[in-house]
Amino acid sequence: MGAHVEILEKLQGALQAQGFEVYPFQICWYNGVLDPVFHLSYPPDTLAFVVLSAPSMFEKSFKPFLAQHELQSLRDPIDQCVSYHMARVKERFSAHNIDVIYDYELHPNRRPKVLMQTAAHVSGAAYYYQRKDVEQDPWEKRKMYGVCIHPRFGGWFAIRAVLVFTDVQAPGLEQTLPIDCVPSREDRISLLENFNFNWKDGKYRDVLPAKEKYSAEQTLYFTTPPAERLNLLRLWGQIQPTPPC
Ligand code: B12
């Protein structure tokens, strides 16, 4: 049994009940599909995990986090909650060295440090539908961004972080391909069009009947512009009002 099996179980034990999912991959699977500028510089069979937030993360992690912690006013509240849980993971795995890379982290030249959708695809977490997955696409010169679809959550999830266990090689880890849950050309076209042209209405998320989705409350939270989210949480009584200056 490779070290990755034990690590995966322990990670799931730490994060599943909080509404997160984790999927393992080898760095070379990720680097193997990307342009060299995006490569992660670790040995090829280094063990890494992609961390997704399921719809239940809002109830299971975010609300308890708000109740128990003082928010920093200048950082996104969800990001604070996710990094709190990743810090706890690092504590639980203190015998290992883990590099945590978040979805929002950029290099000084503004290039994202990790392409989360590629990581989700190569780990088998969620199929990454890209323009090139549509034969004879109808979009001519338009730029079309790709989107990951999860077999149980459809588009109702986010890809939060990649954890690299820099001291663990996992040559025995077998690659699981993601489930192709949008197999037809027509459905892929409407998925990509919804994601690119109408993402605000969230319709792309319902490309398949999801087993779990965001609650009305969670949807409202995520459709509220980031600058107004703290006010929304105050209104809901989830956090204390700002004391007068
Ligand atoms: C920058 C960014 C944006 C930019 C540009 C989008 C883009 N894709 O370039 C803007 C601001 C427009 C944007 C918008 C949105 N975004 Co955005 N965005 C990102 C971010 C931070 C980086 C994406 C990026 O720059 N990619 C760089 C390009 C070059 O990558 P790429 O096109 O995938 O190209 C690579 C692949 O093609 C790969 N490749 C080549 N061949 C193959 C073969 C295979 C099999 C594979 C797997 C890969 C592969 O190689 C290429 C690079 O060499 C990611 C988070 C992250 N760190 O990944 C979120 C992310 C992509 N966004 C996300 C979302 C949800 C949105 C929005 C709906 C807004 C929102 N947050 O709610 C909108 C929707 C798009 C729209 N209509 O505007 C989600 C997508 C989730 C999902 N289910 O896929 C992400 C992953 C954030 C998250 N935390 O979950 N976004």
Provide the fold topology:
Elements: H1 3-15, E1 20-26, H2 27-33, E2 46-53, H3 57-68, H4 77-92, E3 98-102, H5 116-122, E4 127-129, E5 147-149, E6 158-169, H6 185-197, H7 216-223, H8 226-235
Antiparallel strand pairs: 1-2, 2-6, 3-6, 4-5
Helix pairs in contact: 3-4
The structure holds cobalamin.
Provide the descriptors you would attach to this structure in a database record.
single chain, 245 residues, alpha+beta, 4-stranded antiparallel β-sheet, 35% helix, globular, binds cobalamin
Structural class of the secondary structure composition?
Answer: alpha+beta
Strands ordered across the widest β-sheet:
1-2-6-3
Mean pLDDT: 95
- The helix/strand series, from N terminus to C terminus, equals HEHEHHEHEEEHHH
Low-confidence stretches: none
Query: How many discrete structural domains?
Result: 1
Span between termini: 59 Å
What is the 3D form?
globular
Oligomer: single chain
